[in-house]
């Protein structure tokens, strides 16, 4: 057995004994647009694996290649992302995911497909 593999197994064993693990899969709870000019998405974080965990919401627009991070994590409270007028387009489908990361690994929510016109 290589020393790198042995080290990885040792770290994994110690982490499991300490109750630490990669984060659980986050789930996007809902997205709402009160006025069709802005919208907010909220998520349930899932297990943190017993470690400090960072969450990020990423999105792309259907038919486009670029992926972006949430423009505003503060306005709508914890575990949310607010899209101001500057970031909102009607008649476009947003493909949204939430990523959870801690020192043991990461997990990603299932994608949510959102058309602001219908939320």
Task: Give your account of this protein's structure.
By secondary structure, this protein is mainly beta. The protein contains one helix and eight strands; from the N terminus they run H-E-E-E-E-E-E-E-E. Helices cover 13% and strands 37% of the residues. The longest helix has 15 residues, at 3-17. The radius of gyration is 18 Å and the shape is elongated. The mean pLDDT is 91.
Main traits of this protein?
mainly beta, 119 residues, single chain, 3-stranded antiparallel β-sheet
Q: What gross morphology would you assign?
A: elongated
Radius of gyration: 18 Å
CATH topology: Immunoglobulin-like
Task: Note the gap between the termini.
Answer: 54 Å
Give the number of domains.
1
> What name goes with the CATH superfamily?
Immunoglobulins
- CATH class category label: Mainly Beta
**Helix-strand topology string:** HEEEEEEEE
Model regions low in confidence, pLDDT < 50 over at least 5 residues:
none
Mean pLDDT across all amino acids: 91
The CATH architecture designation is Sandwich
- Number of separate strands: 8
Number of helices: 1
Helix content: 10-25%
Proportion of residues in β-strands = 35-45%
The main β sheet shows up as: 5 strands, antiparallel
The computed structural class is mainly beta
């Amino acid at each position: 057995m290589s020393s790198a593999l042995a080290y990885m197994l040792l770290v994994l064993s110690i982490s499991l004994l300490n109750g630490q693990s990669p984060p659980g899969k986050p789930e996007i709870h809902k997205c709402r647009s009160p006025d069709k000019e802005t919208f907010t998405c909220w998520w349930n974080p899932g297990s943190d694996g017993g470690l400090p965990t960072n969450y990020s919401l990423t999105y792309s627009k259907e038919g486009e290649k670029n992926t972006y991070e949430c423009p505003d994590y503060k306005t709508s409270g914890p575990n949310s992302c607010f899209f101001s007028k500057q970031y909102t387009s009607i008649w476009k489908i947003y493909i949204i995911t939430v990523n959870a990361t801690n020192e043991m690994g990461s997990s990603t929510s299932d994608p949510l497909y959102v058309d602001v016109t219908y939320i």
